[in-house]
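Could someone model adenosine monophosphate with this protein?
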Amino acid sequence: MEKINSLTGMMDLIANKSNKEELPNKIFHTEKVLESIFKNFSISQIRTPSLEYTNLFERSVGETSDIVNKELYTFLDKNEKSITLRPERTASVLRSLIEKKLDGDSHKLWYLGPMWRYERPQKGRYRQFNQAGVEILGYEEGMAEFEIISIISSINKRLKIEKPIIKINHLGNHETKKNFCDALVEYLKPFQSKLEEKDLTRLNSNPLRILDSKSSETQEILTNGPRISEYLPKKSLEMMDMIVSTFSQECEIQIDQNLVRGLDYYTGFVFEAISSNLGAQDAYLGGGRYDNLCKHLGGKDLPAIGMAIGIERLSLLSNVLEGDKTSISIIIISNNTEPKAYKIAHDLRSLNNNINFDIQLSDGSLKSKLRRANKDNADYAIIIGEEELKSNTVIVKPLSDNDSEQTTMDLNDLDNFIKNLE
Ligand code: AMP
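Reply:
Sure, complex below.
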């Protein structure tokens, strides 16, 4: 029969019991740490559907962006409506707030879940990947920017990320952005013959994106070009300096005037966190201010700033593994006694929620079940056999400490033993 595989660029994540350093284990743990950080910042959770009408992304992410141009998973549904698997979630968050008439209020929201982009898969770049994100809505430029960088700094600290760099820039408001783009286009016109195809297209459609061109020749040309800082109000420049001085003791913050980000909706403050340990795809999170987007999508004038965190990339960088929980492998030996033995196991679980109880469900021998318990890194085996059941006892065998002897315990003592385990 023909083998059925997963789609290119889409990963299965299966946790490995005996090796917490495997990527799926790190991903699941990173998600838990992020959730606890978001709670620590008093941010509420939002979950939106995976599918949206296609025009939501065309209108928000932008028709000139790579995402909308070539990366959307778009289909016609049975009703001939064009629908799209979300490539990012900011647009969905705004769509939801506008639809529920919540766009007149301020909000701090976080989300977590898969996104889909039809990209060329490579290390750290997948077609289905997971993003956690934060959106802070209803606040003008200022404290919200500090809050976002404070969250990033907490993520770096809690996951012990080595040598992270936060790059920041400011794109100004709509008008500043336009004036700067006009000057950039004017400056680049005489160099058109030296620009590569992609940059030439951007010169007409989205000149700002030329700033993050991968071509070294383009970058060389840009060194003498206009700088966005020359177009920014003093207040914005001061805010960036204050962010650098407030957080630079905790991690390196660089002002990078070529940082523009791939989505069209950003205005004002933008940022990205990178690590050289990731290779070519070095950004593990990014975001910025998008003050015009809510109105642009038909809602109220709601200033906002947000970020999206690439879970796979962040997990690759994380140096924090899931903590060791005490784990007990329950080995039932005789078939005749199973219902009673199973009831003992069932009751044990409710005595201590901090312990992982794994009943071995197979029919194997004691020896093979102990081997399995050791392979799974269990701390204890509780062996329930016919003889023990007759005398209302079980055998408790420590597995992690070779010197400890196994003991026979009556069921009352077992209850106390389990309750007192940490
Ligand atoms: P973006 O939504 O493009 O601003 O991306 C935010 C973060 O999501 C990036 O910094 C990456 O860490 C992650 N990311 C974006 N695209 C992909 C992808 N195709 N595969 C894995 N991670 C991604």
